[in-house]
Amino acid sequence: MKNAIRVSCNRTNLKVVRDFVNSYLATYDLSELQLNQIVLAVDEVVANLIIHANAEDESQYLQLRVTFENHTVDIEIEDDSHVAYIPSTFREPDLHEHVRQARKGGVGMALVNRIMDRVEFTTSGTHNICRLHKHIS
Amino acid sequence: MKIAQQFTDKTLTLSLDGELDASSSVLLDTELSKPDILDNEKILIDCQRLNYISSAGLGVFISHLQRFQDANTKLVFYNMQDKVHNVFEILGLDSLMTIVPSQAEAAAI
User: How far, in Å, CA of B95 to CA of A132, rounded?
Assistant: First the structure.
């Protein structure tokens, strides 16, 4: 089965990416909640790369690869942006503060970090690379 | 994402149908941003056909919650699928938002 997809940096492609990851992992023995969580983690990272690192420039593309081996899901997402995207300043969100400030964003990476066992961001040349890793028990 | 509206006795019910992500959440934000929405005593969100929510969808509700509370407009979710409820739980939003199992319970609040 095809395990990679390439999409342009348009946020309407988020559904294309989710459908691809859903289809690929549907053949493995994951619960509905586990599958939804992994799809969500991918969606959050891809949305950040499309919107923040690539400013929704449709001439830019993302490449995503997913593998499932030895009860472990590994996903690699790579772009070709001139803007380095490494959320190293990430802090756990204070939800009460988000409500008071009427903030729309700032909780996506918290979801990713809580869902996945390992989240790595690196920048190589003009490439941002995110690797997501999760063991399925 | 489709959003159906129903008004009854100072209660607005929004039935969400589809997936709420960084693309589709703009539509929901537009609906919740309308000034006259605060004329309602309750806003009920029917989640039966909401198949997916990301942080962008959650962010729309987070960003309007204080405004609704200040106007004494209650925001109540019902008929939520387990996988969608799980996303609220992961973030701890289930303790900040009012989520009940059924329409009858939502109407009784």
Answer: 28
